[in-house]
Amino acid sequence: MHFAKGRTIEEEGKIPRYLYFIVSGYVRLFHYNNKGDEVTMHINCPPGFITSYFHFINQTRLGENLECITACELLRISKPH
Questions:
Q1: Is-cis flag, bond preceding 80, omega within 30?
Q2: Contacts of 79 (CB under 8 A, 6+ apart)
Q3: Cα-flanking dihedrals φ and ψ of residue 12, to 5°?
Q4: Using an 8 Å Cβ cutoff, are 3 and 68 in contact?
Q5: What is the DSSP string of 9-63?
Q6: Whole-angstrom Cα distance, residue 35 to residue 69?
Q7: What is the mean pLDDT for each group of 10 consecutive residues in the chain (81 residues)?
Q8: CB under 8 Å to 53, separation ≥6 — which residues?
Q9: Domain spans in the chain, listed from the N-terminal domain onward
Q10: Whether the Cβ atoms of residue 74 and residue 7 lie closer than 8 Å to each other
């Protein structure tokens, strides 16, 4: 999959659908604090996997967002239901 810079690929409040493998680009995991500021918790680059692992494995609602901070080429792996 190809995603543009600034694209949110997993959103807070939703159940994460994919584990991503980064072929190219940079992806960050972030949340909003109680003041509304963005707090980056993790940045990953190739080759590497990224998702909100706890929420992906347990299929619970995200407390974070995944965003492409550059143009990205990603492979996606879904979790069977």
A1: no
A2: 17, 18, 19, 56, 57, 59
A3: -50, 140
A4: yes
A5: EE-TTS---EEEEEEES-EEEEEE-TTS-EEEEEEE-SSEEES-HHHHHHT---S
A6: 22
A7: 97 94 97 96 95 92 96 93 65
A8: none
A9: 2-78
A10: no
Q: Looking at residue 81, what is its pLDDT?
A: 65
> Omega of the bond prior to 47 within 30 degrees of 0, cis?
yes
Q: Strand order in 27-32's β-sheet?
A: 8-10, 65-68, 27-32, 38-44
Burial grade of 41 (CB within 10 A; 0-12, 13-18, 19 or more):
exposed
Class of domain 2-78: mainly beta
Answer whether 43's CB lies under 8 Å from 28's CB: yes
